[in-house]
Amino acid sequence: xxxxxxxxxxxxxxxxxxxxxxxxxxxxxxxxxxxxxxxxxxxxxxxxxxxxxxxxxxxxxxxxxxxxxxxxxxxxxxxxxxxxxxxxxxxxxxxxxxxxxxxxxxxxxxxxxxxxxxxxxxxxxxxxxxxxxxxxxxxxxxxxxxxxxxxxxxxxxxxxxxxxxxxxxxxxxxxxxxxxxxxxxxxxxxxxxxxxxxxxxxxxxxxxxxxxxxxxxxxxxxxxxxxxxxxxxxxxxxxxxxxxxxxxxxxxxxxxxxxxxxxxxxxxxxxxxxxxxxxxxxxxxxxxxxxxxxxxxxxxxxxxxxxxxxxxxxxxxxxxxxxxxxxxxxxxxxxxxxxxxxxxxxxxxxxxxxxxxxxxxxxxxxxxxxxxxxxxxxxxxxxxxxxxxxxxx
Length: 393
Prior knowledge:
The chain is an all-alpha fold. Helices cover about 75% and strands about 0% of the residues.
């Protein structure tokens, strides 16, 4: 068992189970383990094996890092999967000698990958991404007509989920290759929404390279090429591009562009309900979260905007875990700058509760934790434990 004790693990499992309104018997059935095993684990008399932990986490619809928060287990699995993901896409334009799976079956598995991405369940994505990438590529090469267009959409979505893992865990070269694959697939969908989504994700490469002005230019071209916002899907596609453009404009210290794109995102967001559109969350709540992100991106002179928003609004539980966690991490950064380390620490703890692995891999969360630790060296043991967990010491 990693650093979490058996008693702590048992308590976390019991807490999550109760929030899911599951009995111990329900969890046992869903995880395919005995009721006696669940009871023993929850009272701390037994530590779950890796396989049992995976089964319980799957039954509870959480990443294993929600249960064992102090481990490097997810990191190890993600890094171990990188060569297999790389191999799966090495010959993306050459048909593999494997039988294709039916498109409806492939669509189901790709939808599951998307759900895991939005929920920041990176270990699950890492485990399945190589196989799903191979299946998606095979489908694209074997299908014709309308089926080929659908297969291209599924490949683009699969590459996006795999990229989420590669990017978050620092495999930047692999991330760039996956984004190129996503764009290649999107071009074969003949779907301008899919192409807009690929442009949205491509922004990661500009963030990674700190090429913010170039990224803003690329997004503005993508906005011009995106379909007119005449329906929910097209409105969400363009609105998401404006949200992303506002953030990268802030990083480029272009306040006018940031305000323009944020205003456009707000205008479009007010016309449709908050929802997942083609794998990207958009709507009034997403725009509100990005208002905080833009304020923090613009720097210390704009932190009051972020603080004022957080006083009146926080992300609802219905939003994807990754986006909710990101809000609290960015708020923590603003609170550190405002000289409110206690509030910042509380925000980081909320972010960790929502999406542990996303929080642990986020550089701003690590920076904020390190700063809080320097300011409060004699503070509670929980702060020391947190900074050790996030790798800030």
